[in-house]
Write a structure and sequence with these properties.
It is a single chain. By secondary structure, this protein is an alpha+beta fold. The strands form two sheets. It has a seven-stranded antiparallel β-sheet with strand order 1-8-5-10-4-3-2. Strands 7-6-9 form a three-stranded antiparallel β-sheet, with no helix packed on it. Strand 2 and strand 3 form a beta hairpin. Helix 4 runs antiparallel to helix 5 and helix 8 runs antiparallel to helix 9. The radius of gyration is 22 Å and the shape is globular. It starts with a helix and ends with a strand.
C-alpha cells in the first residue's frame, strides 16, 4: 500500500482518462507518504490546470521545480499554466528555460509555439512548431501562415502534407475552411466536404423502451463527478471521457446501440473516395463523456482532433420558441481563423430527445445558447482508431 511508483502509475492512468477525482486521490496519498515525491506534485499541477484551478496549479508546479529544478517537463508544465493565466511573456521565458534543459522536448516546443502564436509572433511560432515534430503542431503552423496571409507558403506546405499524412484531423479542418475562403480546390484528402457526412438516427430505432433508457442514463450521468465549465463548455458541466467504461446494463446497452450506428455509417457512404471512408478503421475504441448545460449554456465552436467519427446522443433537449436555442450548428469556421467570406457553409440541427447525430471529427460544431431555465443533457462520443 505504500509502493509509491505503483500509486503514481495508478494516478497516471486516472489522469489519462480524465478521472480527476481518482487521480487526485492517488497523488495526494503519495505526498502523505513522501512529501518530497516531485512527480506527484507535477501530476497534481496537471489536474489543477485541467480543473481550471490555475493559481493552485502554478503553486504546485513551483513546488515540483523547487524539489527538482532541472526537470524540463515540470518547467514546461508551469509554462502551460502561465499561458492559461494569460501571462504569455512569462510562459515564453519558462518554455525557453525548459528547452535549455532539454532542447528536444517536443511538448515544450509545441507549447512555446502556441504561446508565440497568441502573441502574434508567427514566424517564431512556426519555427518551434516545426521543431516539435508532432502531428498536432502541423496544422498550427498552417494556421499561422493563413493568419499572417502567407498564402503561398500555406499552399506549398499543405500540398506536401497531403502527400505524406492524409489523416490529420485538424489539418482537414483548416484546409476545408481556407479552400472556401480563397476559392481554391481543397487538396487535403481526408474529408473535403464534411457537411455532407452528417447523419441523424434515433435511439427509438434500436431500443423499444428508449424513453426509459434515456431517463436512466441521465440519472447515471448526473450522479457522476462533473467539472463546471471546461474549455469548450460554458454554463454547464462535463464528465470525464470514460463514460462507456461504466459497468452497468444501461451504459452497455447504449454502447451497443452506438456501435451499431457507427458500423452502419461507412456503408451509407461506401461510394465516396475520401480517406475518411476509404481508410475507415477496422478496429476502434468508443470514448464518451456526459455533458449537462444549464440556462445560458453553450459549447464553443470546436473539433475533436483525436477522433475519426464524432457524435452526440441527445437525452434532454430544449423546447424553445426560438428554433435555434439549444441547437447544434455545424460549419467550416472555428478557433481564430480570420474570416474573408462570411458565407461559408453551415448546417443547423434542432435535436429532440433520442437523436443520435454523427459527423466527421474534423467538422467544427457548436451549441446555440439557450435562455430557458432548464437543462440540456447529452452523451458525446468519439470513435478512435485502435
Amino acid at each position: 500500500p505504500q509502493l509509491l511508483d505503483a500509486l503514481n502509475n495508478l494516478g497516471a492512468i486516472a489522469l489519462t482518462s480524465k478521472n480527476w477525482e481518482s487521480a487526485l486521490h492517488y497523488f495526494v496519498k503519495i505526498l502523505e507518504i513522501e512529501p518530497k515525491y516531485s512527480e506527484a506534485y507535477n501530476n497534481l499541477g496537471i489536474i489543477f490546470k485541467e480543473l481550471d484551478r490555475l493559481d493552485e496549479s502554478k503553486a504546485i508546479y513551483q513546488k515540483a521545480i523547487l524539489l527538482r529544478p532541472n526537470v524540463a517537463e515540470s518547467q514546461s508544465n508551469l509554462g502551460n499554466t502561465l499561458k492559461e493565466l494569460g501571462r504569455l511573456e512569462e510562459a515564453v521565458a519558462i518554455y525557453n528555460k525548459a528547452l535549455v534543459l532539454m532542447p528536444t522536448l517536443s511538448e515544450a516546443h509545441g507549447n512555446l509555439g502556441a504561446a508565440l502564436k497568441e502573441l502574434g509572433r508567427f514566424d517564431k511560432a512556426i519555427y518551434h512548431f516545426d521543431l516539435s515534430h508532432s502531428p498536432s503542431a502541423v496544422p498550427k503552423s498552417l494556421e499561422c501562415l493563413y493568419i499572417s496571409k502567407n498564402y503561398s507558403e500555406f499552399q506549398k506546405r499543405l500540398q506536401a502534407i497531403s502527400k505524406s499524412d492524409e489523416i490529420n484531423i485538424r489539418v482537414a479542418s483548416i484546409s476545408a475552411f481556407v479552400a472556401h475562403q480563397l476559392k481554391l480546390k481543397d487538396p487535403y484528402p481526408f474529408c473535403r466536404n464534411p457537411l455532407d457526412f452528417i447523419v441523424c438516427r434515433s435511439l427509438f430505432e434500436y431500443a423499444p423502451n428508449a424513453d426509459v433508457l434515456i431517463e436512466q442514463i441521465i440519472q447515471e450521468g448526473n450522479g457522476r463527478q462533473l467539472v463546471w465549465e471546461s474549455r469548450t463548455t460554458k454554463f454547464g458541466y462535463q464528465g470525464s471521457n470514460d463514460f462507456f467504461e461504466i459497468s452497468n446494463k444501461n451504459v452497455a446497452l447504449l454502447a451497443n446501440i452506438v456501435c451499431k450506428v457507427v458500423d452502419e455509417f461507412p456503408l451509407k457512404f461506401s461510394h465516396e473516395t475520401n480517406s475518411f471512408i476509404n481508410l475507415w478503421p477496422r478496429n476502434y475504441k468508443l470514448v464518451g463523456w456526459y455533458n449537462r448545460l444549464l440556462k445560458n449554456g453553450y459549447q464553443q465552436s470546436h473539433i475533436h482532433a483525436d477522433g475519426w467519427l464524432s457524435g452526440v446522443i441527445y437525452l434532454k433537449t430544449i423546447n424553445s420558441l426560438d428554433n435555434e436555442e439549444g441547437a447544434i450548428e455545424f460549419g467550416l469556421h472555428g478557433y481564430d481563423y480570420p474570416i474573408l467570406d462570411d458565407g461559408y457553409p453551415r448546417k443547423l440541427h434542432k435535436p429532440k430527445a433520442g437523436d443520435i447525430v454523427l459527423f466527421p471529427s474534423s467538422l467544427f460544431h457548436r451549441t446555440i445558447p439557450f435562455t430557458i431555465d432548464t437543462e440540456r443533457c447529452v452523451v458525446a462520443f468519439d470513435i478512435l482508431p485502435a
